[in-house]
Amino acid sequence: MINKELIDNNNKTNIVILRIGHRPQRDKRVTTHVALTARAFGASGILINSKDPYIVKNIESVVERFGGPFFIRDNINAFEEIKKYKNMGWKICHLSMYGICYSSVINDIKKEKNIILIVGAEKVSGEYYNISDWNIGVGNQPHSEIAAIAIFLDRYFLPNTDRLVSKFNSPKLTIIPSNRGKFVKKIDI
Amino acid sequence: MINKELIDNNNKTNIVILRIGHRPQRDKRVTTHVALTARAFGASGILINSKDPYIVKNIESVVERFGGPFFIRDNINAFEEIKKYKNMGWKICHLSMYGICYSSVINDIKKEKNIILIVGAEKVSGEYYNISDWNIGVGNQPHSEIAAIAIFLDRYFLPNTDRLVSKFNSPKLTIIPSNRGKFVKKIDI
Question: Residue B187: left if φ>0, alpha if ψ -120 to 50, beta else—which one?
Answer without folding.
Answer: beta
